Automatic annotation (TrEMBL):
Keywords: ATP synthesis, CF(0), Hydrogen ion transport, Ion transport, Membrane, Mitochondrion, Mitochondrion inner membrane, Transmembrane, Transmembrane helix, Transport
Cellular component, GO annotation: mitochondrial inner membrane; proton-transporting ATP synthase complex
UniProt cross-references to InterPro entries, sorted A to Z: ATP_synth_F0_esu_mt
UniProt cross-references to PANTHER family, sorted A to Z: ATP SYNTHASE SUBUNIT E, MITOCHONDRIAL (PTHR36028:SF2), OSJNBB0050O03.8 PROTEIN (PTHR36028)
Transmembrane segments: 12-31
Keyword match rRNA-binding: no
Name of this chain's protein: ATP synthase subunit e, mitochondrial
Family: Belongs to the ATPase e subunit family.
Species per Swiss-Prot/TrEMBL record: Dioscorea zingiberensis
Localization: Mitochondrion inner membrane
Length: 52
């Protein structure tokens, strides 16, 4: 059995690894974004209450 070349695109493991990394990145990014938006919203609210 011949080993596939480095860029043959045949390796299932490489494909699964890339797909997993991509999925993890999308999930992590959306969680991080929602956290930052919530943090910014509460910061604006606290700032608005502080001025009155």
């Amino acid at each position: 059995m011949a080993l596939p070349g480095p860029y043959s695109g045949v390796s299932t493991l490489a494909f699964v690894a890339r797909a997993s990394a991509f999925t993890f990145g999308v999930v992590y990014g959306s969680m991080k974004l929602s956290y930052l938006l919530a943090k910014a919203k509460s910061h604006k609210k606290a700032e608005a209450q502080g001025h009155h």
